[in-house]
Design brief:
The chain is an alpha/beta fold. The chain is built from twelve helices and twelve strands. The chain has one domain: TIM Barrel (Alpha-Beta Barrel), CATH 3.20.20.330. Strands 1-12-9-8-5-4-3-2 form an eight-stranded parallel β-sheet. Helix 10 links the parallel strand 8 and strand 9. It is globular and about 45 Å long.
């Protein structure tokens, strides 16, 4: 049994970390700059971000590796550093986490299978390389997150299962339909995700990004209605993005806003909860307080 499932035997709800991308931008990451390069060039800053979530009470933290696939890094001329940058990402989060859980973050490649921009064979090798590097750096689990294409997610999950000993967490990003219910931009529902991944045996499923807590409650309910018996992880945005008077994007939900909805999210069936875009250590600290109370 992997670490997440083992810990969940003794603790009903685990709190994950919050945003990385918006946090890195606040620390000076420039538009067009490779976030994963900071694992090498700004290690202390990446470590500070990871530690801030652990200090806020997180039971687990991710790695600065969301866009760390060879296909993504190629656009920065860093493809030959793929293994090194991912291994560094996991080592940094492992240092911050101590004996807590490290989730190796892997996002989609941005290449479309249906358009012939990549092949199943290439995707498999890409995800094999990245997940293996994260495991080598100390990741306990791999979180495949923000996927919208079920076929790409299946290939990624297969690569993780066949080439690492890490638990596999799978999350997709769902949008609310005008007619009700939720689908990814590729038309995948939570029920479709469950049935599509079933034979590959993911350890944890769920949703991240694209929604605040309110919509995530409904998404969790869709998973449960579809018969989900796996642990459900939710990484919600701090509300839906808005523009301020200077046309800058911000996320409106405060730590209290998220904390006030946490029990409803847990009652719906979520057992691992953290944040995505716009969430801060302050949000995570509030979630920890609610769980502990």
């Amino acid at each position: 049994m992997g670490r997440i499932l083992e810990v969940l035997k003794n603790k009903k709800v685990l709190i994950s970390d919050g945003a990385w991308g918006t946090f890195l931008q606040a620390e000076g990451l420039q538009v067009g700059e490779c976030p994963e390069s900071w694992n090498e060039t700004n290690r202390a800053t990446v470590l500070k971000i990871a530690k801030s979530y652990i200090d806020a009470g997180s039971d687990m933290i991710e790695t600065n590796s969301f866009g760390g696939s060879r296909l993504k890094l190629k656009s920065f001329g860093l493809e030959e550093k793929t293994f090194e940058l991912n291994k560094l990402a996991a080592e940094i989060s492992r240092e911050a986490a101590g004996n807590k859980i490290v989730l190796g973050s892997i996002g989609p490649t941005g290449k479309l299978l249906m358009m012939g921009e990549t092949s199943e064979e290439e995707l498999y090798e890409v995800y094999k390389e990245q997940s293996s590097a994260l495991e080598a750096g100390g990741a306990d689990a791999i979180v495949l997150e923000t996927f919208t294409d079920l076929e790409e997610l299946k290939i990624a999950l297969k690569a993780v299962k066949e080439n690492t000993n890490c638990e596999a967490v799978c999350t997709m990003t769902f949008d609310e339909l005008l007619t009700g219910g939720f689908r990814t931009m590729m038309g995948i529902s939570p029920a479709d995700m469950l049935s599509g991944l079933a034979e590959l045996n993911p350890d944890v499923v769920g949703a991240n990004c694209g929604n605040g807590f309110e919509n995530m409650i409904h998404i969790v309910k869709e998973f449960k209605i579809a018969g989900c018996e796996l642990p459900i992880l939710i990484h919600a945005n701090a509300g839906m993005p808005e523009l301020d008077e200077n046309s800058r994007t911000f996320f409106p939900e405060t730590p209290d806003d998220m904390g006030n909805k946490l029990n409803e999210l847990i009652d719906a069936g979520a057992c691992i909860v953290g944040g995505c875009c716009g969430t801060t250590p302050g949000h995570i600290k509030k979630l920890v307080e609610v769980v502990n109370s």
